[in-house]
Amino acid sequence: MISLTINRAAMRAAMPARQQLAASQAVRYASTKSLKDAVAEVVPQKQEQLKKFRSEHGDKSLGDIKVENLIGGMRGLKVMLWEGSVLDANTGITFHGKSIPDCEKVLPGAGDLGLQGKEMLPESMLWLLLTGNVPSKEEVKGLSEELAAKGKLPSYVEKIIDSFPKTLHPMTQFAGAVGALNHDSKFAQGYKDGIKKTEYWKPTLDDSIDLIAKLPAIAARIYYNVFGRGDGVQKIDPKKDLIGNYSEMIGYGDNEGMTDYLRLYIAIHGDHEGGNVSAHTAHLVGSALSDPYLSYSAALLGLAGPLHGLANQEVLGWALGMQEKVGKNASEEDIKEFLWSTLKSGRVVPGYGHAVLRMPDPRFSALSRFCDTRPELKNSSIVQLVQKTSKVAPEVLKEHGKTKNPYPNVDAASGCVLYEYGLKEWSYYTVIFGISRAIGALPQLVMDRALGLPIERPKSMSLDALEAFVKK
């Protein structure tokens, strides 16, 4: 027998360009790398990048802090390192340099894994946020299988959730159950056993993946206990993606539109820079070396505030009130009159404006695009009213002249779609947001440990101390 060995470089040189591209893509998508392996490759690169940057530029100023910054909620101050996303006032959010439209094009979606639907999967976004790289279909499939395998709740957590009174707010229940999972924290045990500081990121990643895997089951059990909807047993199918299982658990498994909407909603809500209350809280509590369960439990309590995660409920209530007033087939003039009546009464128009953005929220645009592709939403009176309002409101708000950003934010659209699909329990909406935000906050916690970031401890001053300082 004659063995023939051909040099690979020579083979590539003989290939047409199109065949070379196909071959390179075939190699990429054949990857069976686990997420932990992928993060392990990234960590040394990030450590070296931080070390070099700090050495070369540590004494450079990022701007002066003014009294107004101190008493104005520190808005806009560049005081946090956050790897996953950057929010620009004029261009919107990017995830490791990729916009939402970019992500919709390159991140594997439901159809890529042979599932019903076509929206990008939160697993794909999680991989991107943790590694900075676009995962292959095989890598996302492997991550989905890992999350499904870890998704079942321990019996003690089920008992804790079942012991909560139905009248206790779903977010309070959610935060409590997440905190209780700390009982099994690998990071807490590793720290107790004296694990090296350079290895902290590994059990932090283990805990984070475990927590993300269990969030749907926690949320579904709360939904069943409080509202009596869903399967009541939190059954997990290993062949389904994270949100496919979640949708099944809350009773929407046979609704392709709702399931795909939840995928998109949770993927694009996952990370929105580090300065928002929930993300910042996870980072702050984690800086004390609290484990991911405790850190994210605290983040959820911040997300429960009406100025943060509850905003879409306020928008939906206002929109339903408008529909009752102007009818289901309102003209643009009808909407304009209602907007002016809201403003003249001294109220703001909910769902418009943003603390950072000075443009339409790209997340709103993504949800709006989804609505335009679904027949059931194109025929929905409340969804179409919200869509019409997004075209009328900016001009009214510009004329009013008191809004820095007159464009719709994500809350202008997110709640009305859930409502149209039949999920009308408003107090539960922020729980869904809570599933999502973990995809951004927990990867940063892993990176905090990988980079050895210190405990967060800003300087505070009293009013008397401030007055004395400015008189110097």
TrEMBL record:
GO terms for biological process: carbohydrate metabolic process; tricarboxylic acid cycle. The keyword Chloroplast does not apply. It comes from Acaromyces ingoldii. Belongs to the citrate synthase family. One of its GO terms (cellular component) is mitochondrial matrix. It is found in: Mitochondrion. This is Citrate synthase. Pfam families: Citrate_synt (PF00285). Its main location: mitochondrion.
